[in-house]
Amino acid sequence: MQKAQPTVALFVSDLHLQASLPRTTAAFLSFLQHQATRTQQLYLLGDIFEYWAGDDDLVTPYNRQIADALKAVQAQGVQLFWMAGNRDFLVGQGFAEAAGMTLLDDPTVVTLAGRRLSLAHGDAQCTDDLAYMAFRAQVRQPAYQQQFLAMPLAQRKAIIEGIRKNSQDANQNKEMAIMDVNADAIAALFAQTGSDVLIHGHTHRPALHRLEDGEIHRLRYVLPDWEYDVETPRGGWISLSADGVLHRHDAQGDEIA
């Protein structure tokens, strides 16, 4: 029987961690202990938290718990990388240092196990959602963030809660296709990065898409969101083994064919 290849990297996104979801939190902490400590690199590709109001929110015990759990993984020799999502784009160097992570740009290209991989959160490619793209452009401006982070923490949290509710209400009236990635935006990302493999999250539509265009063959892996505080838990991650093969895993950790 062929010996299993060691795991080089793990990729995960869209956990939407919050204190009100204890089972999802427990699942992530278990993932860190039993999966992340057995790999060389862990990539967190956005929306790890339901929202992030600023690094001064590390005073909240729940947020400190997550930072400490990540730091414990890093202390065992695992390299941790963080890419901002649409919910936690205010994560800064303070949290990165507390959690032992390196912040990544969106998109980022990495070469691992002989493969050139493009990594993204995925929201920047949802270009059909014009309202969201306008909002994204506004809140990603350094001047906007500086002004927002200057507000008291409690005020920031109240504003974020209002934005979340407005977003949920607006999404109920949007066609599902509008909130998915745009094919041209994905093609542009492949062209920009020069990679034939893309891993992203955001859409909550886990899948492996095979894109064929003549002699060009590309793979787009979409990470699942996590929700264990429901009757039928969902979640999962992608692993990269030393032989360069990518594997998709479900909420129980089983490999998806």
UniProtKB/TrEMBL annotation:
It is a peripheral membrane protein. GO terms for molecular function: hydrolase activity. The lineage of its organism: Bacteria, Pseudomonadati, Pseudomonadota, Betaproteobacteria, Burkholderiales. Binds 2 Mn(2+) ions per subunit in a binuclear metal center. Gene3D superfamilies: 3.60.21.10. Mn(2+) 1 binds at residues 14, 16, 47, 204. Pathway: Glycolipid biosynthesis; lipid IV(A) biosynthesis; lipid IV(A) from (3R)-3-hydroxytetradecanoyl-[acyl-carrier-protein] and UDP-N-acetyl-alpha-D-glucosamine: step 4/6. Its EC number is 3.6.1.54. It catalyses: UDP-2-N,3-O-bis[(3R)-3-hydroxytetradecanoyl]-alpha-D-glucosamine + H2O = 2-N,3-O-bis[(3R)-3-hydroxytetradecanoyl]-alpha-D-glucosaminyl 1-phosphate + UMP + 2 H(+). It comes from the Bacteria. Keywords: Cell inner membrane, Cell membrane, Hydrolase, Lipid A biosynthesis, Lipid biosynthesis, Lipid metabolism, Manganese, Membrane, Metal-binding. This is UDP-2,3-diacylglucosamine hydrolase. Its cofactor is Mn(2+). It is an enzyme of class 3 (hydrolase). Hydrolyzes the pyrophosphate bond of UDP-2,3-diacylglucosamine to yield 2,3-diacylglucosamine 1-phosphate (lipid X) and UMP by catalyzing the attack of water at the alpha-P atom. Involved in the biosynthesis of lipid A, a phosphorylated glycolipid that anchors the lipopolysaccharide to the outer membrane of the cell. Belongs to the LpxH family. InterPro entries: Calcineurin-like_PHP, LpxH-like, Metallo-depent_PP-like, UDP-diacylglucosamine_Hdrlase. Mn(2+) 2 binds at residues 47, 86, 121, 202. Pfam families: Metallophos (PF00149). The keyword Transferase does not apply. The keyword Repeat does not apply. It is found in: Cell inner membrane.
